[in-house]
Design goal:
single chain, five-stranded mixed sheet, alpha/beta, two-stranded parallel ribbon, 7 strands, 144 residues, 6 helices
Length: 144
């Protein structure tokens, strides 16, 4: 469960929404917007050895969904699990340098959420350095 969906400190300082990017953010967004992606129902898979993080009903068929921050993290899963996953929901897809991995990703439906967050005016950071850079950039834009 996401305890705090946005960074309260930066919101109070600057009035902007920022997110610390992790899989919980991807899951929160997926749970709120699964219908926007064409799914009529979702069911979390809670077992440690489950194939994917969710089952999602799409056009009358249940599909396995894996949530990742970056699509490349999908390859940390064993091949037998990757084979069964039909949909990857991630912050950003990126492009693998490995042609075999890129070919495997192209066989999946990959849903990126970064553009939805950007359209909503939400800034995203992945670590404390990026947070400092974001804050410095905001100060610079505001002439401070």
């Amino acid at each position: 469960m996401v305890e705090r969906i946005y960074d309260k400190d930066l919101f109070e300082k600057y009035g902007i929404y920022t997110l610390y990017l992790n899989e919980e953010i991807v899951e929160h967004y997926f749970k709120q917007h699964f219908k926007d992606f064409g799914f009529s129902h979702i069911q979390p898979l809670l077992e440690k050895d489950s194939i994917g993080d969710y089952l999602a009903l799409e056009n009358g068929k249940w599909v396995h969904v894996e949530l990742e921050v970056f699509a490349s993290s999908f390859f940390t899963h064993p091949a037998y699990i990757r084979k069964e996953i039909e949909v990857i929901v991630c912050y950003k897809k990126g492009k693998s340098r490995d042609k075999n991995k890129q070919a495997e990703l192209e066989q999946k439906r990959v849903i990126e959420i970064w553009n939805f967050l950007n359209l909503a005016g939400i800034y995203v950071y992945r670590n404390s350095m990026e947070k400092l850079f974001l804050e410095a950039n905001i100060n610079h834009q505001r002439g401070k």
